[in-house]
Structure formats: structure tokens, C-alpha cells
Amino acid sequence: MPLLRKPVEIRTALSLTPLIDVVFLLLLFFMLASVFHREGEIEIAARGTSTHEQPTTQPLFARVHADGRYDVNGEPVDAEQFGSSIAATLAASSDLSGVVLQIRKGASTQIVVDSLILLREAGVSPVSLAR
Predict the structure, then answer these.
(1) Better-scored residue on pLDDT, 42 or 13
(2) Sign of the dihedral defined by the CA atoms of residues 97, 122, 45, 50, in that order
(3) Taken in order 67, 69, 72, 73, is the CA torsion positive or negative?
(4) Phi and psi for 43 in degrees, rounded to 5?
(5) What is the distance between the alpha carbons of residues 125 and 87, in angstroms, rounded to a whole number?
(6) Are strands 58-64 and 96-103 parallel, antiparallel or unpaired?
């Protein structure tokens, strides 16, 4: 007598593993694509884009050296007093307006940015960059 076999029941269960993989991939993508920190911005005007007439006063010349030293009109100035020294010189003289910041060869970008921040904190405006 032949044996009768019972039909085998195949359970089809929904697997959540692929769904979890997709969710983690999306989470990773959005974490890497988002911006958590914005850098500070320094506004720099392009050369020759000014629409106002040329001032009759002269600018104050400041120099930034590669080793972090500062000169204001040829005189050495301490780094901590750089911004306040320029602000005091501009306030004392009506013949001076603005600052031309000359960047010496070899000066890093960080030194230049630190100099611009010192001038901005001292309230010095306008500032032009020169080589």
C-alpha cells in the first residue's frame, strides 16, 4: 500500500531584514548629506566693483608677516594689540580712512583670517587686501 504524503505547508513569513537595511542606508545618507556646522563668513569686495567715488583721505597700511608679526605703517605692533592699535590710529587722525592689509609671502590663510577677525572686532572698516 502506497503511503500517502501530507501536503507540506510552506509558511511565507515577511522578513524585516531588507527593510531595516534600507532604513539604515537612508539614515546614513541623510546624516552624511546634512550640514551641522556653518563656517563664519567674511565679506570681501572684488577689485573695481565699488560704485562710490574715490575718497580724498589715505588708507592706513598694515602688514601681516608669515610668522604672525604685524606692522602698522612700518612700525611693529604686538599681535594682541593689532586691532585696537589700528582703531586708535584711525580715530586719532582725520586724514586716514580704512586699512590696506598687505599679506607677505608665506603667510598662511589662518593668519590672514585671524587678522581680519581682529580688525572686525575692533570696528575697523573698510579693509582691503593686498599682496
Answers:
(1) 13
(2) negative
(3) negative
(4) -80, 125
(5) 9
(6) parallel
Extract the C-alpha cell encoding 17: 531584514
Give the number of other CB atoms < 10 A from CB of residue 83.
Answer: 23
The torsion angle over the Cα atoms of residues 38, 123, 60 and 54, rounded to 10 degrees, is: 80
Which backbone phi and psi does 128 adopt, to 5 degrees?
-115, 145
CA pair distance 61, 73, nearest whole angstrom? 5
Task: Give me the phi and psi of 127, to 5 degrees please.
Answer: -125, 130
C-alpha cell at 60: 592706513
Kind of pairing between the strands at 96-103 and 127-130:
parallel
Distance, C-alpha 131 to centroid of its chain = 20
The amino acid sitting at 24 is F
**Angstrom distance (rounded) from CA 12 to CA 7:** 15
pLDDT in tens, 27-83: 999 988 887 776 776 677 666 655 556 556 788 888 898 888 888 888 888 888 888
Q: Which three cell numbers stand for residue 48?
A: 573695481
